Amino acid sequence: MAETVTLTDARTRLGNLVAKSHHGGEIITITQHGTPVAAIVPYEVLEYFRRREDEADVALAEQILAEDDKTVPHDEVAKLLGEV
Asked: What is the b/e burial string over 37-57, where b = at least 16 CB atoms within 10 angstroms of the residue's CB?
């Protein structure tokens, strides 16, 4: 079950919200002035998305290397990966 709480509420209930996420697998959305700004998610969910991001980065690098067999300057790769 997903829960949405205000930032003010999250501050006072952080321990409980973390426990709900960790033990119950819940995703808690935190809002500020009615806009979602952050989330508390089970750590496994974060790790899943980190792995997916790493896989996408590797796939992009392999695609770039296979395209022309040319050297790609670091700043170009960083730009493609959104690091610049």
From this structure: eeebbbeeeeeeeeeeeeeee
> Are 41 and 27 within 8 A, CB to CB?
yes
Sequence-distant (≥ 6) Cβ neighbours of residue 29 within 8 angstroms: 2, 3, 4, 5, 36, 38, 39
Structure tokens at 25: 């697998």
Q: How many CB atoms lie within 10 A of CB 16?
A: 11
pTM of full prediction above 0.90: no
Task: State which amino acid sits at residue 54.
Answer: D
Is 84's pLDDT higher than 60? no
Assigned token pair, 5: 């709480």
Q: Strand, coil or helix: what is 75?
A: helix
Phi, psi of 48 (to 5 degrees): -60, -50
